[in-house]
Amino acid sequence: MAFDCMLCKATEADIHPVRDAKDGRPIEIALCRSCGHVQLADRPDLATLQAFYGSDYRKAYRKADAPKPRHVFRAGRDASERLARLMAHVTPGARLLDIGAGGGEFVYLAGQRGLRAQGIDPSSGYLEFARENYGVEMRAIGVEALDPAERYDVITLFHVLEHLPAPREAIEAAAGHLDEGGLLYIEVPDLCAKDTTPTNLWFKAHLSYFTEETLRLIVEERFEILDSSSGRVLTMILRKRPAPQPLADLQARHAAAIDLSRRRIREKTFGEYLLNGGLLSPVASAARILREARGTRGRGAREILDALA
Ligand SMILES: [Zn+2]
Fold it and tell me: Total domain count for the chain?
């Protein structure tokens, strides 16, 4: 299978055989020798992907078309943390579009904070749940189906980019729907995370495995970074530039990205995981189960989120 890099179109890569975290089947990961982007070596074609996300994805990952109370609680906790960070950069009344809005928890909580929020997601099962339970505006479409005239002050992409076959183009599309000075808020899994096991890292649904270096390569031409963090996840709050600005020192940046990606793949071991929280993970799991039981007991989905707001 010929390789072509989804970020830079180069055709040379280091290939690593790994196993899918969900079903243990062998898959191949490619590290681009030109830009350092780590990606699934053998990408499914677009039609296969669209069919997968249209119906099978939620079932494969959640086994139901309505989220369980503990999933609402978990998503609500993530949403309120993301919102707290975003509110430092926006004013009430801002128009927000959440792409890949899932169960609508973020859209609902953003509305509670005074933002004019709506969501899109090509997987419609959760959207009906969100409309019925939270009264939020959700559409069952992908970003490519947005009306070109739609404009927002904030666009959010939480755990979306790693699923897309053309992430650079998705950033470009998002930029096209933002007014000047508009914000793009991205969160993806971090290849540099040290507190995940090597067996819970590679997923055939994840086409990209970003580091801070490779994510910066695809956003910085159109956006200025206002806030970024790495660790378990990689997050960036970005402001759209008045005009695209070509990246300087591209060769040096590619070299740094390649070095970092190679180092991360080499260092990704059980030893690293155990030294970075793995030894305490049974305690952390027990604490999480208790917290979720307390946060959901006797509450409907909306009440769970209201308690988190
Ligand atoms: Zn590349």
Answer: 1
